[in-house]
Amino acid sequence: MDTNKIIDRFIKYVKTDSQSRDEIRFCDLITEELEALGFEVTKDYKAAEKCGSNGYNIYARLPGEGTPILLSAHLDTVFPGKNINPIIENGVIHSDGTTILGADDKAGICSIISAMTYIKENNIPHRPVEILFTLCEELGLLGSRYADYSMIESKQAVVFDTDNVGEIINSAAANMVLHFDFFGKAAHAGISPENGKHALKAAVEAIYNIPVGHVDDISVMNVSNFLAPGKTNVICNKASFDMEIRSLKEERLQEHIQATLNTVEKACKAYDVTFQYETDRHSNVIAVDKDSTLIKEVVSAYEKLGVSATLSQTFGGCDATNLCNAGIEAVNVGIGMQDVHGCNEYIKTEDLITTTGFVINLLSK
To answer: What is the per-residue pLDDT across 213-265, written as a single tens digit (0 to 9) for each?
Structure first.
């Protein structure tokens, strides 16, 4: 491999702005490069409209021999991600400190396209390759949520969007977000407080009795956005709060949801108020068996590079969640990006090279 070309490509990518919802320039650049490699490319503007983006999801397909595989990464970056000035020092690439670097997730895209460039230039036989590059991942996995999966033939996928090279995330938590509204009765707090029904007190008692943090060995919970606006001389008749529950097992998630509802109901009875709630499922459980063909192929591709692969689990989300929801077995692999979502973000050049080699091994026949 020409390592300088890989590094130059990465520098070009991060210098092409693509903050969430403003990805169009990077979309056009990547589309041009994929087409030059012989990929059949489709631009999904419908997904972009749903995301509120000026770009588009990119689907690409290149024929090959054998079983197809989907490679995926996201096109957008977090803020501040405009006018990035990448600096290379002692084999490490970082920004000038005023912006992010954008290795999340342009290192993944760089490795995929660099690998395909090497395969094409050297006429290496390869399996059929499909690509899904998504919009607005940083805003809640939106691009993959609204992707058109009818366009994808592959039943297995590798997402390039976590930290350490050799890490394979094959287990991820389901994430349910809940919103609660409490309804009491207003009354003058000085003249007739006995006529009021205190929504604020009920909400506070519920929050006090809802556990947060690591609530068991496979689940985490959190409460936020408590609101109870009003005047000091009026019994508060409305209150609300949000919360989320994440668990590595669906049945445990449902148990925590029910326990939360029981807690809220008990608090409301104590203060004679009512409540309503809404749920928004952000993700389902990812659970790819360690003995699956996909895991074996990914581990083998790393071993050929002398990289020791490790399986791991996460409570965080990535596009692999939505791929799995669509019936595609997906894992998320590390690409070397570090300290992401901040101006100290960096990546080692050797990790870019290693991930490119991993893709070559994964695709080669």
So the answer is: 999 999 999 999 999 999 999 999 999 999 999 999 999 999 999 999 999 99
Residues 193-203: tens digit of each pLDDT: 999 999 999 99
Distance of alpha carbon 126 from alpha carbon 135, whole angstroms: 27
Beta bridge partners of 185: 197
DSSP string, 200-217: HHHHHHHHHHS--EEEET
Is 168 in contact with 209 (CB distance < 8 Å)? no
- What residues have CB less than 8 Å from 262, skipping those under 6 apart? none
Distance of CA 45 to the CA centre of its chain: 20
SS (H, E, C) 284-334: CCEECCCCCHHHHHHHHHHHCCCCCCEEEEECCCCHHHHHHHCCCEEEEEE
Measured distance CA(365)–CA(355) in Å, rounded: 18
Q: Is 156 left (phi over 0), alpha (psi -120 to 50) or beta?
A: beta
Segments in the chain forming alpha helices (H):
3-14, 24-36, 45-51, 103-121, 142-145, 199-209, 250-271, 293-303, 319-325, 349-363
Rounded Cα distance between 341 and 95, Å, is 12
pTM above 0.90, yes or no: yes
**Using an 8 Å Cβ cutoff, are 145 and 56 in contact?**
no
